[in-house]
Design a protein that fits this description.
Two copies of one chain form a homodimer.
Chain A (H helix, E strand, L loop, with lengths): L2 H12 L5 H8 L3 H14 L2 E8 L8 E9 L8 H5 L5 E7 L5 E7 L2 H15 L1 E13 L7
Antiparallel strand pairs in A: 2-4, 2-5, 3-4
Helix pairs in contact in A: 2-3
Chain A binds a DNA duplex through helix 3.
Amino acid sequence: MEELDQRIVQLLLQDGRMSYTDLGKATGLSTSAVHQRVRRLEQRGVIRGYTAIVDPEAVDLALTAFISVKPFDPSAPDDTPERLVGLAEIEACHSVAGDENYILKVRVPGPGDLEDLLARIRSAAGVSTRTTVVLSTPYEARPPKL
Amino acid sequence: MEELDQRIVQLLLQDGRMSYTDLGKATGLSTSAVHQRVRRLEQRGVIRGYTAIVDPEAVDLALTAFISVKPFDPSAPDDTPERLVGLAEIEACHSVAGDENYILKVRVPGPGDLEDLLARIRSAAGVSTRTTVVLSTPYEARPPKL
DNA sequence: GATGCGCTGGTCGAGTTCCTCCACAAGGCG
DNA sequence: CGCCTTGTGGAGGAACTCGACCAGCGCATC
């Protein structure tokens, strides 16, 4: 990816609502040119979308946890992600190397909901779980430096 | 938080670039009223910012990993997050319950960079590390359901 | 080595839409 | 009643978006 696109992406990572006009000023391009490039980045899949960064506690999702997941039957075909995709509390699902197969990042209002969620995960995917509760998060969702 | 704010936040989680006019149509409020509410949400810290969601591979950050971190000296005052905040490869830092003290989420171009980063983490924070490499991520950064 | 063609990626301008601020109204509440 | 909060509506200015046009470049053709 070339220099200009990279700078545009960098700027949009830092402020996803920046206007095309400002992006143009920051990159030395005209508004239309920037707009065109952003559209291309979007349809190439480099930019997958935009979102607000929200304080989880303010929306009643005070409890974050990582759940490591391992199928009961390692020989069965592994469709864990599809089985879990319907659980909205799961923010992310990573397939990982190591003892367990997947790491899930989940957010729930409180401990009771976590207990409930764990039961639903186990029954939906046929897996055993190991949960690591997040006590606090010093930082999160930092934009990467390109 | 009341119903209307919640719906606005929900919409902005799904599309961080939605215009105030559209937010108004979706919530039945006038453009000005929505704008006012969003501003309040921002300055109350409910909305911390906006960002583009970018395909990591497209920006040469193909390797994601979780690094669990534990100080060499458990009795020393723990300022690990501050010591690591300067390392741009670290996307998130969570203090967790369990055997280790923190879980870091990091992104680097490749294995060599991970090795290098681990060395920098250890020397900067005086910690031992255990890293879990992400093989693939079925989904990530899903907007929570409010 | 020129000529000419198509492609890519840029500027410019104009019409439309959106943002943003302000004045004012409607509803709690002491 | 007065005050605070939260809405509405409108107007001026800024931003978006589209089309027309242009410059550079690769390349087949003469």
